[in-house]
Amino acid sequence: MDGKVLIVDDEKLMRISLESQLKKEGYHVKSVDNALDGLKMVKSEEYDVVVTDLRLSGMNGMDFLKEIKKYDQEIIVVIMTAYGTLESAVLAIKEGAYDYVAKPFSTDELIIKLQRALHFKNTAAEVNRLRGEIQAEFEFCNIVGNSEAMKKVLETVVSVSGREATILIRGESGTGKEKIAGAIHYHSCRKMGPFIRVSCAALNREILESELFGHEKGAFTGAIKTRRGRFELANGGSIFLDDVDDIPLDMQVKLLRVLQERTFERVGGEETLSVDVRIICATKKDLLERVKEGGFREDLFYRLNVVPISIPPLRERKEDIPLLINYFLKKFVSQYEDALPDVSQEAMNVLLAYDWPGNVRELENVVEHAVAFSKSKGISLETLPEYLRKVDVHKDLLSMDLYNKQAISLQDALTEVEKKLIQWAHQKTNGNQVKMAEILGIPRTTLRNRLVKLQLFDKSSS
């Protein structure tokens, strides 16, 4: 049994006996006869468990416990106390002690308590590790994008995270709606509470109602016991309802009540339950259109649409594709690699030309595929999935997706078109500037000037 234990007891025989027997069981043990020395050892070395008597000369065991907890909340403290003073042990547990053992006790009894204490500490450490990993996933730095559209999204997320307002996120499948919802939760005052996720599109009506609101035993066939719903589980935290547009109309009334009053009843139940929960919803559809079609309640829409966040599809922010590729390369490339693989210009042209109907999620899968098939540390056309190798990088050379655009800079647009044409010519001629100028129908000196101005390729190429 591995574990570092400090024994603090002014009864010499008890102290020496416990130290000897615990060492035989495989523990790393040290002991002292007073709390002041014990506190010095706690601060100079790392201990998993401190076993201390309550009655000590100088600083007593209760004050010792408080000082330990001030220094490090993670240290497990087990109290030894005389049988007649168990009320003191109960008070110690209220102050943060893990357990107590009443004198006289057997070593076996103490060992069992130490085993439980170490298991508790290891479990708590694992829970904290997993919580840290989840929180890291939703850090702002993981919302990747330098386009104006994504900057606005991030500004909104930062602004509303610390508030309690209901959020409605709109975006196509794969744009990262859940990541935005998670970022809002984990940067709010509710971050230590649960973040419960529900896909409303993945469940039929009966199951969805039970999932959201829970059910009582016997509420329907198969309800063999009472079950808490997702709203109850999210109490003190946030609930993320993805594809909220798929909630049936009759159930939308129940959701509206939760939004207005934070109360509901389980399926088949009569007791009214209250919850303290922040609601974040997402949809890939235009909810106002759904309202006009009669598929979504107007009053519910306005309750959900307190703070709207629209995530643009990847085809409308292609300038973010290189950043996203680099982000995913860091995620998928082995930690033992010296550097990230290079992405060939040919592969990059394809990745930039493709319209990404699956959005960021599809790009992530493509990068993972490319890394898996990259044998020479480089991402080339051959490492991409077969369907991407067939993409015509020139087919939509001059196309622009102007959907949702309210204004556009003509000069910026012309510059972008010019860049694309020169990149096309560069690929077509393998960088030969004489041939590039020829197929573009411009003098070579003009081409060289454009290359310098646009900072494209190696200006010494010929």
Automatic annotation (TrEMBL):
For this UniProt record, the keywords arranged alphabetically read as follows:
ATP-binding, Nucleotide-binding, Phosphoprotein, Transcription, Transcription regulation
Q: What Gene3D superfamilies would the database entry show?
A: 1.10.8.60, 3.40.50.2300, Homeodomain-like, P-loop containing nucleotide triphosphate hydrolases
Q: Which residues form the Response regulatory domain?
A: 4-118
Q: Which domain of life is it from?
A: Bacteria
- Cross-referenced Pfam families: AAA_lid_14, HTH_8, Response_reg, Sigma54_activat
Show where the Sigma-54 factor interaction domain sits.
143-372
SMART domains referenced in this protein's UniProt entry, alphabetically: AAA, REC
Q: InterPro entries, alphabetically?
A: AAA+_ATPase, AAA_lid_NorR, CheY-like_superfamily, Homeodomain-like_sf, HTH_Fis, P-loop_NTPase, Sig_transdc_resp-reg_receiver, Sigma_54_int
According to the UniProt record, list the residues that bear 4-aspartylphosphate.
D53
The molecule here is called Sigma 54 specific transcriptional regulator
Q: Which organism is it from?
A: Candidatus Brocadia sinica JPN1
